[in-house]
């Protein structure tokens, strides 16, 4: 677009501009001398665009500059003082106008920088012209699904009752549902399986939430660190000097403080935290960008609603230095004051037990010296305990306490609540971190007296010592669940040790050392990191984690390489001071060795069935348990009831399976006034054991119930269920599609009349539910009227998405004419060409529905099919359709059906098959949400010209942008990546890593991902599978596409600014900068006699500077040119008119061209005779000068007149020289 110069008759010295909401750019010239007026000129860009290049041109006087150039057509900016024709001086600093585009938004903001000042004489006409280049608009695609209009039959026939059907379901949990890492399939022939049928049992693996709970002891807080994303996701104030952190059986945190003796419970799952202040949201610590927002403080601990307990458990003891969960829903607390004591707290009720002092009558065992061996039984004695330093509970409900005396290990029976035994090793001063293994053996750190670790085996009452004098004393210890190896943090050395436990020889001492804080195995410390390491633990994937008070980092160690993990090579700085943690801060030790458990869950889709009981079949040996809980869900998965039994303070409760029985029924609480009816039904089963060697087995999970309702009740359930299933929580905005519904649902009801209650749109489920529940069936079935509404409504004519109709009916039409009209209307809506077609699905309602009629409607809508006498039958192409219909009943309640033994149709969904339809619609939504139609306006000036970026007449992918706005990864420029072409590494991994906030492990998954064309016309883009999944999961706010408007001059001729044959050029697109660049059409070549500057040095035919070896690849010449060779002469005379350009750089092609009588070779002339005049120099174009030996005659002048061509004659001369030399040899 070009805007002509507009005169401003007053002196102006300021310029600004604005852009309004319609995309119009307004140029404002104000502060006008003597008048203080304001001048505005509006440039309207149509279509509205997100990018535009606008060049300001200054027009003055006669619109001509000193050279006579018309500034109205010249594209250069004025960047210096110039004198115009009217002799009025104008001084202008560089004036630059630019377009500022923010985060790929659809509307741009035009800004001006380096504002210019103008000095002109009064009454001089000033004007500005703006050349605006309109680009392809940025198109923002919000993930939105198809338009879906539900048409629900509300005629009187819908009130007929349906038959009550009992329902029963029993399934093997090993082949259905979902189970975590704590469970595994046990085969029918397993020797530990008494019933010889497959089932689920406890595994050797463990599943815990992906969080490490890190005590920031100098900040009085604890951090929730995500071990897969490497992010701090929460931070909580918990008291003075926190240290011990443990995870209970439900994955929740318990943390104790050393100085203030405060105990705190924090729920790990924010979604399960209570809304205590009833403000509709959970007020809890969260991550915002790169920052963590802490909600609570010492003044209000419970401001964070995920903090459920915070108190000082007792005033009799102080300093919590030990925490350990048991298998019975208790967490044990150890105190380091006095002689030391323990106390338990119920994780759900927070009921506290008495405190149990660690002194008194106990059975004493003793071993002198520092060697491994059997302990001596000294019998019952009055033993004195010591302040606690750490706790652990084994699978047999025995609690062990490390303590500050370092030379004794007391054992407490949590069943009898008595201190039973104490083990003395007076010469082996060790006892810091403490843990247990799968054999209930106790492992202790060696600090401060002994190096390495020691192990006590309660089964044999033997003690084992594993010294490591090279690396010193150990603080924290943990057992690797998968291998049984013992990992240890070596105090003040910066190393983590891995002790391989040889069960065949427990005396074997085999350490592998890992340089945790070191630059390498033999290197020094990483800069800014100290040596002090404390706690160590494992996540669900077997990775080791450690931390300490030497830095603010947490370290991930890879057991496969015995080095720091490659995806977190230098640990992760939390920025919260140093970390003082010894206990089970990840939860795997308790889940693996103290209270092994596993969970199985399944959600059943019941479509409004009544559930009476859950039925389990299991094997539960003594010491094991199986429990179940359940709840009802809405169609969208949101709970409609609480859990049965109810949770207590974030702790899941379970109905216990009857031990020893082959089957247990769990009746569901309900009444006639409030039956337990569910669209979906969630069942959660937990298996657990107190002894790893004894495992329960789950064989079957099922339920009992019934389904009894009318056709109308079923229609109501279907309509509300479909609308709820597509609803996504949150609002859908222009910029954020993460809250957009998967289907744009609408509702109309029909009987004698059609009532359009709700148009397709966002978050219509509540309105649809209210409308359908407020409607009462009546009258007759006006099937043809509702199809006419379907055919004509604008709600199903969207061009940017699919248009779907769902007809929910019993299929009981009243007249044959209505049916024929309805079939024709459905067919016309599907096949029309004047608007997008409509696909129609049909849902029948069970026993009282006419399945043949509903399937006939489905066939017309493109979702079913018919046959006639075994051959395909298309109702849309059938004549006399009424011959296949018959009518029964008495008017006005007649009923039309398909005549038996004629056409046979299928395709309508039955009431019990609605789930399949839901999945099909959601799949269609998912497929559509990953397709992006490019906005390529039909503008012949821009898009249909040969220089538009294209390949073979189609858009060039390199000139097309696809940009994803991800809720976590932010803006990503997606590369073109076509799996069909075998593209592998398309560059997206590097793009993601460049963001700095995306984990390497995540980025690697998208190495071969990007976008590619979805159709042969290249008008629609789509994403590769992994990226498409991100859209389906609603992790993408929007996707922006743009067919680039840049490089529109590609292919046009241009002047490179170089001299000679290098001057003529053409525009070529640089896709990195998205700008046209002028490239030389011909490359510089050795000089030959042709009247052209071939080597582009500014001198024409300077043959004396050339070397015959430059043409070493030439071996012969066409005989007709031999007489024209230069033979050691160094000058040329060009009397003819050489060809301007030969479009090749191939010397062999030049030889084949005829240049006879164009230029001739002559002896060199004296410079004084051959020096060119300034006129001839100027006429040569570009200021080139002929060589000193060239003729200055008229012929030469004509040959030099702005020409550019290929070398030839000197080439032939040089060629002949080489040939003659060969002959002389």
TrEMBL record:
Keywords: Membrane, Transmembrane, Transmembrane helix. Residues 782-888 form the VWFA domain. Residues 1166-1196 are annotated as: Disordered. SUPFAM superfamilies: Calcium-dependent phosphotriesterase (SSF63829), vWA-like (SSF53300). Coiled coil: none annotated. The keyword Protein biosynthesis does not apply. Residues 1167-1179, 1186-1196 have a biased composition (Low complexity). The chain crosses the membrane at residues 1198-1217. InterPro entries: Vgb, VWF_A, vWFA_dom_sf, WD40/YVTN_repeat-like_dom_sf. This is VWFA domain-containing protein.
